[in-house]
């Protein structure tokens, strides 16, 4: 039996039943650790993971009941940016760090956001459909009604890693940029050519509004009907963040009533959407299947990051990407050692 047990739901995303953990195990070499699959149900997880030294969270929701059942867990490690499927507050109360992968797929998501912006602005999907349907002569008249991209305003809601990467891509196109983010210093924005602004200023002045708010309880349903009413009737709404940050019914009304010109969405409130979702039938909507972060680098990079975080917590060091909102007051912080790139996680 290995010294350290890492429990993970069987049959969940990122791998297949019974294996596929080679990338995660790279950083765990020498630690005498094993990843053990447990049933992917609440009761099954509780029975199988009670004595786990760490949890590799994926593929299911992790409730307070599940977290409270963990008797010696040193960390709950996620292979995603979003942490909304784990009760972080419950973990914090137990003194258990929760980690995510905040910087592993930034470039891919930024590329996708910029792609959606350009596709919406140049009506790429509609133009493609016109050609395929034998409506060749309709393409040019449509684009003759659309303002040029240079000089337009791109507004960001939240200005974290992805938004900053998007700003770097948008700047050479001649876009004016502004951002609303009450959680970062305003001085972080000007180096990217971005002007600090209020939420209302972003909504009223932007030709493109790019949503990047995380799926936190505070951000759920953040954009409501009143916010879409503030936007220009020629504006496009782009979301590569999280679907639940937007009141989808209000957004649909905005599109149907012409409060905004269109939407380009990688995320939705319900995924996959019901086939009767009006967004699926709208010509002024571009959709992708929550694929913004995907690339050939995606799985190896995040799995290796999971392994690195597991190695850190199991060797008594603080993880790189702890997302707990408050100090872990109930844990004995003296057991944690600072992480050093020179020493490495296994030294």
UniProtKB/TrEMBL annotation:
Please give the Gene3D superfamilies that the UniProt record associates with this protein.
NAD(P)-binding Rossmann-like Domain
Where does the record place the D-isomer specific 2-hydroxyacid dehydrogenase NAD-binding domain? 114-292
What SUPFAM superfamilies does the annotation carry?
Formate/glycerate dehydrogenase catalytic domain-like (SSF52283), NAD(P)-binding Rossmann-fold domains (SSF51735)
Write down a Pfam family by its short name: 2-Hacid_dh_C
**Alphabetized UniProt keyword annotations:** NAD, Oxidoreductase
Please provide one cellular component term from the Gene Ontology annotations of this protein: cytosol
List, in alphabetical order, the Gene Ontology terms for molecular function in this entry. glyoxylate reductase (NADPH) activity; hydroxypyruvate reductase [NAD(P)H] activity; NAD binding; transcription corepressor activity
Q: Which family does it belong to?
A: Belongs to the D-isomer specific 2-hydroxyacid dehydrogenase family.
This protein is called: C-terminal binding protein
Source organism of this protein record: Limobrevibacterium gyesilva
